[in-house]
Amino acid sequence: MGLNVAVTSDLLAALRDDLFSADYTADNLDAVWGSDAASALRRGQREPARRAVDPGPRLGTIATAFVLGLPVDRSRLGDALPLLGVDGAVELGLVRLDGALAFPLLDLRPHAFVDEAGVGGWWIASDLGEAALRHAIPENHVLGVGGASLTLAGLMVGERVDSVLDLGTGCGIQALHSARHSRRVVATDISDRALELAAFNARLNGAAGIETRAGSLFEPVAGERFDRIVSNPPFVITPRTDGVPAYEYRDGGLVGDALVASVIRGAEQHLVPGGIAQLLGNWEYRDGDDGLERVGGWLDSTGLDAWVVEREVQDAALYAETWIRDGGVLPRTDEFDRMYGAWLDDFAARGVTQIGFGYVTLRRPAEGAPTLRRLERLDGQLGHNPTGLGAHISATLAAHDAQHAMTDGGLAAATLVVAGDVTEQRHYWPGDEHPTVMDLRQGGGFGRTFPLGTALAAVVGACDGDLPLGAICAAVADLLDVDGAELLAEVLPSVRELLMVGMLRLG
Ligand SMILES: C[S@@+](CC[C@H](N)C(=O)[O-])C[C@H]1O[C@@H](n2cnc3c(N)ncnc32)[C@H](O)[C@@H]1O
Which has the closest alpha carbon to 358: 102, 44, 148? Predict the structure, then answer.
């Protein structure tokens, strides 16, 4: 299929109007077949939805063709898309005709979101998946909006900027999100097909300012700098062995985790001072060495502020199984075992025992040397972040800058307040008057827990924006009958950490 977006603008406008008048929204889509069938679809099983859907009404016809990937009666398609018409759908590359039936060539589904700018919805075209094709997807498959896409979109810092680079744009979902807060977006990919679909989706959804460019990694933007870089790169570690498919959507063609290292190392040259890069990645644990430290090694060659959050670690065998299955190969088959062997050989060649996954935030300092290097494991449930984690990430960077700029004396003179989403938990042995464990719980952000000692609990409890920290420490020291300066020195590192993670704020 070739999508000529330049000559299909009118057709895309007709399609947009048809999808709009058919009320083709994410909520309505689930209602077409019910929540159980919707859950089955998310697991890649379309049979419950196929049984539940009535292909007669407009929504049923559109959903049957473009979500379930099933042929529909061509006259029904014409009724469902009256402005575009069947011929327009053929011209756009949405369907091919065979007798009385129209066979879908693309997946096209609604995507609803909430970000800092408000609620919104798009229609996203991508390649038909395995459930629709009834066979393994080809290596040049262009993925729709998946779990990793949603994760990165939710991490995006949303302050208004002039320019964003979306490296490895695929269907263009990050470019679309970026266009909500950026004047222009450059969306790159090695896949021409992905770029066609990204342009198709930008036009279909009326998003302005998105330019697509072909090429690997930072090649298409040589010599250019951006306010933001976002990338859900093809980070899946894949053996470079004959017979193991190299899916463009997940595998950048390099050995091990080298592609993620390249994006991290290359970001600095393409960020303006103060610019931020956000990406997802995998990293290897080799020969018992820590994977996060490995990422730290990549960062050593840059002058970037860095905050890396490892969300998950999988052992090498589980990782291999996950990604072999993702490619549509069934377990307990010879094909599966052959690939499993290739993956395990590849890991063994580099001494890889585990693979980490996480979020990387990089920032080119506005001036001077980097001041932030934070590599941490946070594998628990996230807090409640109705518009995503982006606002929290932005606030964390600002909080780092503010507290880093303050001397200990300055901090002692400052007034602090406990953030509104923080609660204190106390655990008692039954019958005891005093708690055995106390901690602070963060309701939003990463949903952190922070352990409290007696002095810190008393200090934090008094942080209501009234007295300066130093005066609070002096009063608490009096109560506990300890030295005031010593207590201040004891709690200051924790106070800095609580400020950094957003559990305390400068009043
Ligand atoms: C995991 S998909 C991400 C798609 C989309 N940005 C999202 O968030 O859903 C990775 C994309 O990177 C592209 N890609 C693969 N190798 C690349 C490379 N060397 N340089 C740039 N893009 C590449 C793939 O074609 C694919 O579209």
Answer: 148
